[in-house]
Description:
The protein has 66 residues and is mostly helical. 77% of the residues lie in helices and 0% in strands. It has 3 helices and no strands. The longest helix is centred in the middle third of the chain and has 28 residues, at 27-54.
Amino acid sequence: MSTISLRLPESLHKKAKEISFKDGISINQFVTSALAEKISVFFAEHYLEERAAKGQRKLFLKALKR
Length: 66
């Protein structure tokens, strides 16, 4: 596991602290989870863009008609 030093605006730190407390997890777990979520969205978006580039609108519309 790695350690990073992170500077956050006070307001963002306060909100992360509040949410993690309400969720019953540490702020480290909250930040780790949020980062993992953001990374997965990034990769999903690029995967879908690549798949869409390979697609053909004509074939898509044909499949929808079925």
